[in-house]
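Help needed: design a sequence for this.
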C-alpha cells in the first residue's frame, strides 16, 4: 500500500477504534446500571448480571484486538513520517494523523493558515504516494 493510502486508512481506523472505545464505555455503564435497594441488592431483573458481564468481556476482547492493530499501524505511521526531513511537514502529519487534530487546531498551533497546511499536506502526499508501506 502506498504511504498516502496508508495514512488515510490509519486515520479512518483510528476513528473506528475511538468509536469502539466509546461503545465499550456505554456497555460498561449499562452493565453497572440498575436500581439498588436499601440493602444495596440489584433489583433490575430484565438483564441478568451474568449476561451483562459476558457482553462486557466479549466487547472488551474485540476492542483490545482492534487497539493492538491500531498500535501496530501507529508504529508504521511513525516509520513513514520519521524520514521526512522538513519539520513543518513532519509536524503537520504527526498532528493530523497521530494526534487526530483538525486543520483549524493545527493552524493555530503551528501559526500557519489552513490553506498553507493544505498545500503542505498535498505535497507530502505526493511524495508519500511513491512510498510503499509493508503492513
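Sure. Designed sequence:
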Amino acid at each position: 500500500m502506498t504511504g498516502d493510502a496508508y495514512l488515510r486508512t490509519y486515520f479512518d481506523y483510528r476513528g473506528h477504534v475511538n468509536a469502539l472505545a466509546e461503545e465499550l464505555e456505554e456497555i460498561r455503564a449499562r452493565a453497572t446500571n440498575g436500581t439498588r435497594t436499601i440493602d444495596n441488592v440489584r433489583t433490575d431483573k430484565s438483564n441478568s448480571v451474568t449476561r451483562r458481564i459476558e457482553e462486557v468481556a466479549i466487547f472488551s476482547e474485540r476492542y483490545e484486538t482492534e487497539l493492538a492493530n491500531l498500535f501496530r499501524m501507529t508504529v508504521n505511521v511513525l516509520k513513514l513520517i520519521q524520514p521526512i526531513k522538513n519539520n513543518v511537514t513532519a509536524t503537520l502529519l504527526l498532528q493530523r494523523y497521530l494526534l487526530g487534530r483538525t486543520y483549524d487546531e493545527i493552524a493555530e498551533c503551528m501559526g500557519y493558515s489552513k490553506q498553507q497546511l493544505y498545500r503542505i499536506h498535498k505535497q507530502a502526499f505526493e511524495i508519500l504516494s511513491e512510498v510503499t508501506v509493508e503492513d
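The chain has a mean pLDDT of 90.
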